[in-house]
């Protein structure tokens, strides 16, 4: 009906939804104003990375002599966040190549059936020796025992292969990072570059290290051996013994050397391990990669980092100070003056970005409500009327009444939309103005502090000359 249609459209227009990130931020109690999109541009993100990579190339002696412990700790914190961000960008891409492998589950069932059939024939003949006292039930008990033993060795062998392949996924990543770290440290080492690589390695180990620390191992002759391996080997020996007994009993290979008969007897064991490796490679390894992907996705969603504008300002100041220390042609005689000038420029850049992004947001709001108007007009109920028994003049009158009602209804709805739009623009403009005023005050304070410090430095220089 028309009233319900209009009410639904009104709800769509006025409804305010929060993104997942905003919900997490608000739940954590952060100031929402810090996290609005103003000032969080791709340009700033790129510059943050550039400054952090520059810090990683500084000589260690310079860091020790020129940086306070508080400043070093802050830089390490930012570098750790950069390292984690890099892992969250790169590691899932590597895992996706494995996670994409998908085979039909019926293939695994067929593989298991082959292993069960071959293994049960071998095991049942072996168990037949020990079940001879069961009389008529001897063969049945032997066959059941054969199936159980065959299924057990298939499970154990698959577990051994799965653990090996899944551990290799993590070990390969950690070894690659360790190799890259050592190569980087050869080119030049400081505590920041070492912290960057250590943070990447530790983060991957924290997410994936569980597979490397599984407790299904015992110490045997000074070596850690998986209990799955021990149990599988015991069952394999029984299987091999049963196969050799069958080969000898059939009498088909009596003329062959004992070595050849031993090789033939080992074929069921080889088949078991080949099929176990295939199952692990086709099914278990991709499943493990998918589980790791889910873990990394949860880590990425759960991460709330320091507001980018605060990080950006801190690093811009650091960058200006480093330039002053390293350059003999620096515009400013002290690190403090260089950092204060960076503050002034930072606040100026922020104001420019706010104004530009504010215009884009206002235009986006206008476009949004214009689309809403068009959708309401397009979805307005069409003229429907039973034409039977109506004269042309009556039909024309009904059409005119419909058009008049449509125009009035749409005008009323468009007016409400316009009011909502203007209110939203007003709220956005107010928020933008407040942020601009706050930045302007901060810039003016930075200018005053810069002028005061500059005057103090000039005064000290004149006193030294006069002395």
Summing up helix and strand content along with how strands pair, one would put the structural category as: mainly alpha
Q: Terminal Cα separation, in Å?
A: 93 Å
What is the alpha-carbon Rg in Å?
Answer: 37 Å
Biggest β-sheet: strands ordered side by side in the sheet? 1-2
Determine the fraction of residues in helical runs and give it as a percent range.
over 70%
The count of strands amounts to 2
Number of spatially distinct domains: 2
Can you write the helix and strand succession as a string?
Answer: HHHHHHHHHEEHHHHH
Low-confidence runs (pLDDT<50, min 5 residues)?
A: 1-7, 12-40
Count of alpha and pi helical runs: 14
Nearest-integer average pLDDT: 75
Main beta sheet, described? 2 strands, antiparallel
Shape: flat
> Which percent range describes the beta-strand content?
under 5%
Describe the protein in words.
The protein has 467 residues and is an all-alpha fold. It folds into 2 domains: 2-79 and 307-382 and 393-461; 91-302, no CATH class. It has 14 helices and 2 strands, in the order αααααααααββααααα. The protein has helices spanning 2-14, 20-28, 32-35, 42-55, 60-66, 69-99, 105-130, 138-187, 191-208, 227-250, 258-302, 308-326, 335-379, 392-466; strands spanning 217-220, 223-226. A two-stranded antiparallel sheet has the order 1-2. The protein is flat, with a radius of gyration of 37 Å.
């Amino acid at each position: 009906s028309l009233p319900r249609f209009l009410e639904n459209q009104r709800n769509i227009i006025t409804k305010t939804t929060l993104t997942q990130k905003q919900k997490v931020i608000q739940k954590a109690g952060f100031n929402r104003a810090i996290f609005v999109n103003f000032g969080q541009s791709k340009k700033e993100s790129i510059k943050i990375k550039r400054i952090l990579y520059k810090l990683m190339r500084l000589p260690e002696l310079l860091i020790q002599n020129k940086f306070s412990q508080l400043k070093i700790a802050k830089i390490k914190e930012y570098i750790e966040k950069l390292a984690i961000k890099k892992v969250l960008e790169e590691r899932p891409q590597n895992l996706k190549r494995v996670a994409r492998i998908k085979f039909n589950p019926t293939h695994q069932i067929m593989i298991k059936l082959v292993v069960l059939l071959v293994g049960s024939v071998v095991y049942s003949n072996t168990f037949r020796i020990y079940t001879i006292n069961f009389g008529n039930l001897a063969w049945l008990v032997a066959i059941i025992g054969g199936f159980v033993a065959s299924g057990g060795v298939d499970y154990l062998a698959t577990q051994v292969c799965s653990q090996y392949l899944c551990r290799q996924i993590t070990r390969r990543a950690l070894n690659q990072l360790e190799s890259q770290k050592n190569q980087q440290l050869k080119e030049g080492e400081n505590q920041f570059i070492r912290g960057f690589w250590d943070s990447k390695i530790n983060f991957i180990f924290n997410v994936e290290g569980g597979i490397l620390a599984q407790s299904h191992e015992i110490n045997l002759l000074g070596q850690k051996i998986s209990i799955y391996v021990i149990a599988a080997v015991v069952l394999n020996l029984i299987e091999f013994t049963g196969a050799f007994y069958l080969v000898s009993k059939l009498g088909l290979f009596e003329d062959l050397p004992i070595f050849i008969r031993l090789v033939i007897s080992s074929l069921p064991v080889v088949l078991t391990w080949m099929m176990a490796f295939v199952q692990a490679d086709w099914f278990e390894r991709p499943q493990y990669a998918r589980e790791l992907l889910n873990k990394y996705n949860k880590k990425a969603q759960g991460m709330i980092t320091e507001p980018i504008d605060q990080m950006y300002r801190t690093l811009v100041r650091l960058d200006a100070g480093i330039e002053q220390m390293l350059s003999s042609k620096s515009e400013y005689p002290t690190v403090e003056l260089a950092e204060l000038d960076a503050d002034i420029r930072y606040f100026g850049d922020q104001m420019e970005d706010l104004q530009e992004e504010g215009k884009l947001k206002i235009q986006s709001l206008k476009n949004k409500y214009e689309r809403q108007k068009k959708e309401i007009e397009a979805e307005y109920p069409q003229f429907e009327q039973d034409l039977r028994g109506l004269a042309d003049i009556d039909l024309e009158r009904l059409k005119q009444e419909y058009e008049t009602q449509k125009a009035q209804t749409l005008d009323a709805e468009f007016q409400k939309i316009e009011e909502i739009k203007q209110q939203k623009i007003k709220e956005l403009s107010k928020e933008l103005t407040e942020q601009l005023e706050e930045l302007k005050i901060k810039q003016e304070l930075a200018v005053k502090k810069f002028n005061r410090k500059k005057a103090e430095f000039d005064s000290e220089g004149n006193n030294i000359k006069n002395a």
